[in-house]
Design the sequence.
């Protein structure tokens, strides 16, 4: 699977960096190109650094748990309670929140979803109406702003300003705006995709104060919570005053590379939303797949050693990417992410136009188009850093060969 191949013994293979217990630097490009998942399958000939899947295989403890589940040969209805089943992952989540974030969660207030965006849309559906204002930090992970658009909610932007010191949001300006343009909810992406911003405690406190002042429901997408580098994640619901007005949605899918399993959990703080969820027809949102819950439980129970190791690898990649970019694409503007394995790169000084993704594609590198993240993404690309050192090196070397293209018609 990850036997030494083209990238198993290169400069960033077992030599300079060492590949460690889990072989994160031993990725074989041919193995990646044969994978059936979306990231590599659509254009196997390219170097794929777009959708947020990691190139490394998921933790062995998760694969072992899935195999053990198959070996038990019982794929019948799980015994998770009736008529409102709760997968075992809900209890494991509550225990893990206390252990990892020091956040005490009542497991009876945790619900399963088939994925994070389903949780976001369900809560928007139950707690807001078409025409209602919803605050969103921009640029934004596309399914979040598209959810607001498709559901007819009014997006109230908090635009990011990115400079060498970090990612900044102007909350005085947000408060001014909320006085004239009311909102009912804050849809937070914490940590933030695509900028990799990890909202520090003082910023979370400010957001909670704003939510209290303007009576906003907080819907917090915390899917990247375990991918922070310099400090442990602080759930916004753990900030004083937030718990009763916050729905926090988590998943093992990003940190443990399990996105195809389709599973998320949400802690639903507001009682009225818990009630509204219980009043929905019981099959409307589908049910959780037995194997998906098995994978989540294994990751959150036994996956911490792998998570620690992958974070070391990703942190190395984030430094390496910044260094390679400075050397080979010195005009690109980039600030290493404080969280996530996603790098947000401002290519405007490079003269590659509003859609630099096209120029990089033309030389064989597939990245995420900044324009998909909203108007602030023009001239930007998002680069997925979760690969081996050798492949990352080759991605940047190839990006450096990109040239301006004629405008797109
Ligand atoms: C911020 C954020 N939310 C949600 C998702 C998607 O989660 P799901 O597939 O569980 O809907 C992603 C995937 O990259 C993401 O980055």
Sequence:
């Amino acid at each position: 699977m990850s036997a030494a191949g083209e990238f198993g013994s290169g400069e960033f293979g077992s030599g300079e960096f060492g590949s460690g217990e889990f072989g994160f630097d031993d990725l074989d490009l041919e193995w990646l190109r044969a994978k059936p998942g979306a990231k590599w399958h659509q254009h196997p000939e390219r170097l794929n650094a777009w959708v947020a899947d990691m190139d490394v295989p998921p933790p062995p403890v998760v694969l072992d748990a899935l195999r053990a589940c198959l070996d038990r040969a019982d794929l019948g209805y799980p015994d998770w309670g009736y008529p409102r089943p709760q997968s075992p992952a809900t209890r494991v989540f509550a225990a893990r929140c206390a252990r990892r974030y020091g956040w005490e969660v009542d497991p009876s207030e945790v619900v399963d979803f088939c994925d994070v965006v389903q949780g976001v849309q369900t809560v928007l559906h139950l707690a807001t109406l078409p025409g209602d204002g919803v605050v969103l930090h921009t640029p934004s992970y596309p399914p979040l702003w598209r959810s607001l658009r498709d559901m007819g909610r009014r997006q109230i932007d908090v635009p990011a300003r990115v400079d060498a010191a970090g990612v900044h949001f102007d909350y005085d300006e947000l408060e001014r705006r909320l006085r004239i343009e009311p909102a009912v909810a804050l849809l937070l992406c914490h940590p933030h995709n695509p900028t990799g911003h990890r909202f520090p405690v003082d910023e979370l406190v400010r957001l909670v104060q704003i939510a209290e002042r303007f009576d906003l429901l907080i819907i917090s997408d915390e899917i990247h919570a375990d991918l922070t580098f310099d400090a442990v994640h602080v759930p916004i619901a753990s900030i004083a005053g937030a718990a009763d007005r916050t729905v926090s949605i988590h998943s093992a899918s990003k940190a443990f590379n399990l996105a195809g399993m389709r599973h998320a959990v949400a802690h639903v703080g507001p009682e009225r939303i818990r009630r509204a969820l219980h009043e929905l027809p019981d099959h409307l949102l589908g049910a959780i797949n037995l194997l998906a819950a098995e994978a989540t439980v294994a990751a959150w129970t036994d996956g911490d050693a792998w998570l620690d190791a992958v974070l070391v690898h990703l942190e190395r990649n984030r430094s390496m990417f910044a260094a390679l970019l400075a050397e080979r694409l010195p005009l690109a503007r980039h600030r290493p992410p404080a969280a996530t394995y996603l790098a947000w790169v401002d290519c405007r000084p490079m003269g590659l136009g509003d859609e630099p993704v096209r120029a990089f594609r033309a030389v064989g590198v597939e990245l995420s188009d900044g324009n998909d993240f909203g108007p602030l993404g023009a001239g930007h690309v998002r680069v997925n850093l979760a690969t081996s050192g050798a492949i990352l090196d080759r991605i940047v070397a190839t990006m450096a060969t990109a040239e301006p293209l004629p405008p797109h018609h």
Q: What stands out?
A: The CA atoms of residues 130 and 151 lie 6 Å apart. The pocket of pyridoxal-5'-phosphate is lined by residues 52, 115-117, 141, 189, 193, 221, 223, 251, 253, 259, 264 (CB under 6 Å).
